[in-house]
Design goal:
GO terms for molecular function: coenzyme F420 hydrogenase activity; iron-sulfur cluster binding; metal ion binding; oxidoreductase activity, acting on CH or CH2 groups, with an iron-sulfur protein as acceptor. This protein is of the alpha+beta class. It has twelve helices and 13 strands. Strands 5-4-6-7-11-12-3-13 form an eight-stranded mixed beta sheet, sandwiched between helices. Strands 8-9-10 form a three-stranded antiparallel beta sheet. A two-stranded antiparallel ribbon has the order 1-2. The longest helix has 26 residues. The chain is globular, with a radius of gyration of 19 Å.
């Protein structure tokens, strides 16, 4: 039996915020006035004593998570850990303007530009690059605004707060880009009482990003300052194994750090996450290991399939088969994350998901 989704802010504080398990997804911010996103973290600014509140219902770290997706007609037979897929590709964008600032193959930006310019969506929820403060959610309505947010942050960024604000201001037909925890929150969104179905209906497209863990922005910022890096980062990167390093590109130049020096900045809440490949997204995207400039693309739903096919037909995407070895390695990494998450969950909560 699944644990109940019902609970109040007190449950959110006791289960998530108090123990330091919040991952800063931003889903609770904007649903009520009692939480805000401040410089990389969710903070409680006032107490709510409702026994059943939306902040608890939507939180991906609270008990009562959604069932794994499945039962989609035409789904491929894939290794355990990958999740439901209709198509699997290695792909990259073909528009130099779109791919210039991308992390790898520019697939997220390419698909978003196509979805916006073809009228599939009117609004895109993305993450800013930050600056003086942590990256944060933002709403893009043009190609230029999408491209301004290109690249990976490796930080929690409260992106879903921007979605909630946009909905409150009347926005519909939204695309949301997010980490696996944020895709889980969107899956829980439909079950919110009293208005979950209406809010969920405003999201037309979900693009999920592969994620092993995210960093606490404040801890990372302090670490970089201790290493003499005061300028905002233009780009972060974790090259494929066996590099085992964290790269930081700033106006002061490129710096390389052993991953072991960065690990203390990993959010505690990431320990209990069991989803690496964003299984609740319409399309999940990550690097294609061993193929610089290419992405791994997992098409999971008919919504995702239509957009991917349309982007290919428009000449915005180049496609190749994903090598079997890449798929197997991705599946192994996903299973390892799930195992670690289950072990951590058992240690922290006695296994209650």
């Amino acid at each position: 039996m699944q644990p109940s989704l019902n609970g109040g802010q007190t449950g959110l504080i006791e289960q998530v915020i108090g123990p330091g398990l919040c991952v800063g997804c931003g889903a609770c911010v904007g649903l009520c006035p009692y939480q805000e996103y401040k410089d990389g973290r969710i903070v409680v600014i006032d107490r709510c004593h409702a026994e059943n509140s939306r902040c608890y219902q939507i939180c991906p770290q609270c008990a009562g998570g959604p069932q794994k997706p499945g039962g989609i007609e035409g789904a491929l037979s894939v290794p355990d850990g990958i999740g439901t897929c209709l198509e699997i590709h290695m792909a990259r964008g073909t528009d130099d303007e779109i791919t210039a600032g991308s992390q790898y193959g520019g697939m997220v930006s390419s698909l978003l530009v196509r979805s916006l310019e073809s009228g599939v969506v009117d609004n895109v929820v993305l993450t800013t690059k930050g600056g003086g403060e942590a990256p944060a959610g933002t709403l893009a309505r043009s190609r230029e605004e999408i491209l301004a947010c290109a690249g990976s942050r490796y930080n929690a960024a409260g992106g879903l707060a921007a979605m909630n604000r946009a909905y409150g201001n009347g926005a519909t037909r939204m695309a949301v880009v997010g980490l696996p925890c944020q895709m889980i929150a969107l899956e829980r969104l439909a079950k919110l009482q009293p208005d979950g179905s209406e809010r969920s209906g405003a999201v037309e497209l979900k693009l999920g990003l592969f994620c092993t863990w995210a960093l606490d922005y404040r801890v990372l910022r302090d670490f970089l300052k201790s290493e003499g890096i005061d300028a905002p980062a233009r780009k972060y990167d974790i090259p494929p194994p066996p590099a085992a390093r964290f790269d930081v590109d700033t106006s002061q130049g490129m710096r390389h750090f052993p991953l072991d020096e960065i690990r203390p900045a990993i959010q505690k809440g990431c320990r209990i996450c069991r989803d690496m490949t964003a299984e609740y997204a319409d399309i999940s995207i990550g690097a294609a290991e061993g193929y610089p400039g290419w992405n791994t693309v997992l098409v999971r739903t008919e919504t995702g399939r239509r957009l991917f096919a349309d982007s290919c037909a428009a000449g915005l995407v180049e496609v190749r088969p994903l090598p079997e070895a890449n798929l197997e390695h991705l599946a192994e990494a996903a299973r390892n994350k799930r195992r670690r998450g289950e072990e951590a969950l058992s240690e922290i909560r006695g296994g209650q998901s």
